[in-house]
Amino acid sequence: MGTENQGYPNFPARPTSSPFAAAPPPGVPPQSGGPATGSETGFRPFQPAASQPTRPFTPSGPPVAPSVGPMRPVQSPLVSQIPGNRPPPPSANSFPSTPYGPPGGGSFQRFPAPPFPAAQNPPRGPPPTQTLAGHLSPPMSIRPQQPMAPVTMGPPPQSMPSGPPGANAFPPPADSHMAARPGFQQSMPPVNPSYPGGVGSQPSFPGYPSKQVLQAPPMPFQSVSQGPPSTVSQYPPGGFAQHPNLAAQQNMHPSYAPPTSNVQGLTEDFNSLSLSSIPGSLEPGLDRNSFPRPLDGDVKPNSFAETYPMNCHSRYLRLTTSAIPNSQSLASRWHLPLGAVVCPLAETPEGEEVPLIDFGSMGIIRCRRCRTYVNPYVNFTDSGRKWRCNICSMLNDVPGEYFSHLDATGRRMDMDQRPELTKGSVEIIAPTEYMVRPPMPPIYFFLIDVSISASKSGMLEVVAQTIKSCLDNLPGYPRTQIGFITYDSTLHFYNMKSSLSQPQMMVVSDLDDIFVPLPDDLLVNLSESRNVVEAFLDSLPLMFQDNVNVESAFGPALRAAFMVMNQLGGKLLIFQNSLPSLGAGRLKLRGDDPRIYGTDKEYTLRVAEDPFYKQMAADCTKFQIGINVYAFSDKYTDIASLGTLAKYTGGQVYYYPGFQSSVHGDKLRHELARDLTRETAWEAVMRIRCGKGIRFSSYHGNFMLRSTDLLALPAVDCDKAYAMQLSLEETLLTTPTVYFQVALLYTASCGERRIRVHTAVAPVVADLGEMYRQADTGSIVSVYTRLAIEKSLSAKLDDARNAIQLKIVKALREYRNLHAVQHRLGSRLIYPESLKFLPLYGLAISKSTPLQGGPADASLDERCAAGFTMMALPVKKLLKLLYPNLFRVDEWLSKPSADQDDLKDVVRRLPLAAESLDSRGLYIYDDGFRLVLWFGRMLSPDIAKNLLGADFAAELSRVTLQEQENGMSKKLMRLINKVRENDPSYHPMCFLVRQGEQPREGFLLLRNLIEDQMGGSSGYVDWIMQLHRQIQQNA
């Protein structure tokens, strides 16, 4: 990739500096991109061609002091980064694999984005464009650009014709900035000949230090009116110098003659944040508003999808970078995770379906050697009789029934009728050889705690009502099966045979030797026993309303459920209301001693205490039983142990601390209904294949690894995602691209065995800069989050947080080293456009519930439950949890508007900082799991009264938000419902808090404003300064 210019003649070797380089600043001899004599080893000076005619050149200006640092080779961005142009062939003097060389010409070169200037001369005419608040150094695509005339490639003409400014160049916007270097003239807008020279000063942008701007006197062959003044950044003490002989050689080369038109010089293709101090002050001159923030949510990279339109959609598979390194040495310099996030059953938008394919009697078309499924990237040869596998290059025969003639371009005639050859995602109906047993029916088994706390809190009633309301919508009718066990200090089985009018309850009190009475009648077909099931659900809350038993024989109940289900498998839903106290798996109180925090034993509180739970999870996975845990207690329940059941069976944990049906009832109803009615893939296994030379080495999420690369998923749905990391098996990859194929083999609720296949391709590159340009922050953050949570299970929280910071520092330091040679970086923190939000998300991970602070910042159960949840979240949902929405609504509520307002106009996200909150406003905080309505202390009483009714002056912890009989209240409820509908996977509860109501305000909102310092943790500004200091230490 990027090493050949196919379809173009081979050009002679060119100097690494641009042939269109402009005049040097006064007193500095022009130079090539090569280093001065005496520079570091590994870079040799460029020797110009001896056959080129010479041109006299007399520099003017004062002499320059000796060099303070070597100059490295640079490649002109003019030719290699013009959109639509192929990269030039490398010259003999270019160093594409040099560790600190410039980003080379990969196939994905984009025109660099000039960030804002440190300073510039105020040109005549309109003022320069200012930035939008919250964005800094935006890419070129944000500003409209004038179309560029093509630049001819090859040796430059002996004299460049003088024309209108910009005729041969890409005119920068008024606020563009190029770091000045000797031998490069920075382009500026044309100025009046009478524009005064000399030193000028002007105010800088917020957060940027002022710099002096010098204007060069006219060169002997250039009048002031023909070209722009030369804008020069401040040099280091002494400036740069060259060996006189080398300089003389370069002066004779015609390509170093200054052009007579306005040509753009070396630009900065990175974003930067100026972190220097204000002169005479110790305070950093920072403007927090200029810091990058993901106020538009998850931004997926588009260039990749446009380049490979037949790839599967990014909702199914997202690589951490869409440019795969070609060598192990390049991968080791990447420092960020190299891998992917897979969500195989992600929900498709309305009207978009994954095509269903039935190959019929000819069988599924797969590679004989690596078992890859036929996909859009296979090649058909031999007049259509053979096809070459894109992953292992094996040549396979095409079955007679699948044969089609090829057209003149080698494309199958029936391509448009074959979705598997045009779509990146397909669903294939599997024949009988893909089944080890007949497809299982959907099975839902409920294990319900009926001790005193379950009855008193109202949990039993809500669960029974919700299950009954969902019976019609359970997938798989009429094959669906259902069963129940309840327990306190004894186990209660229920015979629901269809011939009965009422269920029969059987009690087993021997917890050490569990047996199952009437095993054939405990799991029944729902359509046949519907009346008995409904009668049981109606009577369940009444049966145990006076129960005073406080014990919980959870372990024996779990074993009994396993004995009932292990013939078929299915989904086991556990409703646990207290700490398991009897029989196998009983647990004890732990974690109430804060002295253990900060010691080497701290992590033991966050892992299962009793091996019983992991062993039961392994057994359940083996027999295709997936477990979801619903935990309700307001006391310690040891979620670390209970959650292990969900972790290893592909399930999830729902946590309702201090459950009360009047408060949490709606949340439980919606989330249980979603769990029961969403489409589920049963008895599934997933494997990801990739091209020769690379493999997936580690997997992160909720599953059991059955072999080195086979994930066992007893029940999987659209709300589950899995992260994985890649490693290179070979020292050097020789292929130009790498292919990935995700295959999920599962049983659909309708009884069909199916294979969901997602295929994608990514280019292989030799340039580290290209890897950074193609990075996907959302995918990287998903992998980092899972790695950090896993580390917290074997190390201290401090170690997990520090590991995240160290990874980000290493990545940004390597990126800085890429550009430190070409640009004067000074006190700036630089980062690629693709990773501008990575530092903030890194801070958000370290402040997230599983990792934040110490024992006082989150309860042990809350920490563990959040960890199990985040391990399974898809990218978009996870990013919203890490950096939630904060928006103001009082102004919108006060405006008269149509009933069907466009809610996108309302939800203008604000930075998560206390300074975003106005005491006269009403704000909504939304992280996908809860909604917090923050009432400012000085909010208009009319608004509060309209929304809360007679309770508007009461303490808001006692007030429930309900729709009032006025337009303002109806607008707000419509907005809240719309927010909930946008992501139905969880039902965010609504909390009300008034400014100054402590500790609720701090707990619900203030501690979640991650850009502020809170409880000893860093704020955004401090975090950036910490990263910058560490990056500079060894840069």
Describe how the helices and strands are arranged.
Elements: H1 77-80, H2 244-252, E1 271-274, H3 303-307, E2 317-319, E3 324-325, H4 328-334, E4 339-342, E5 356-357, E6 379-381, E7 386-388, E8 395-397, E9 425-429, E10 443-449, H5 452-456, H6 459-470, E11 481-487, E12 491-495, E13 504-508, E14 524-525, H7 530-543, H8 554-565, E15 570-576, H9 611-622, E16 625-631, H10 639-647, E17 653-655, H11 661-677, E18 680-690, E19 694-700, E20 704-705, E21 710-717, E22 722-728, E23 737-747, E24 753-765, H12 768-773, H13 777-792, H14 797-820, E25 828-831, H15 838-846, H16 860-870, H17 875-882, E26 885-888, H18 890-894, E27 922-926, E28 930-935, H19 941-948, H20 967-982, E29 989-994, H21 1000-1004, H22 1020-1033
Parallel strand pairs: 3-24, 5-9, 10-11, 10-15, 15-16, 16-17, 28-29
Antiparallel strand pairs: 1-25, 2-4, 4-22, 6-7, 7-8, 9-24, 11-12, 11-14, 12-13, 18-21, 18-23, 19-22, 20-21, 23-24, 26-27, 27-28
Helix pairs in contact: 6-7, 6-11, 8-9, 9-10, 10-16, 13-14, 13-15, 13-17, 14-15, 14-22
Question: Would you write up a description of this structure?
Answer:
The chain is α+β, with helices and mostly antiparallel strands. Among the domains are: 363-422, SH3 type barrels; 443-591 and 598-678, 3-Layer(aba) Sandwich (Rossmann fold), CATH 3.40.50.410; 776-883 and 1016-1034, Up-down Bundle (Four Helix Bundle (Hemerythrin (Met), subunit A)); 884-1009, Severin. Helix content is 22%, strand content 15%. It has 22 helices and 29 strands. Strands 3, 5, 9, 18, 20, 21, 23 and 24 form an eight-stranded mixed sheet that branches. Strands 10, 11, 12, 13, 14, 15, 16 and 17 form an eight-stranded mixed sheet that branches. Strands 2-4-22-19 form a four-stranded antiparallel sheet, covered by helices on one side. Helix 8 runs parallel beside helix 9 (611-622).
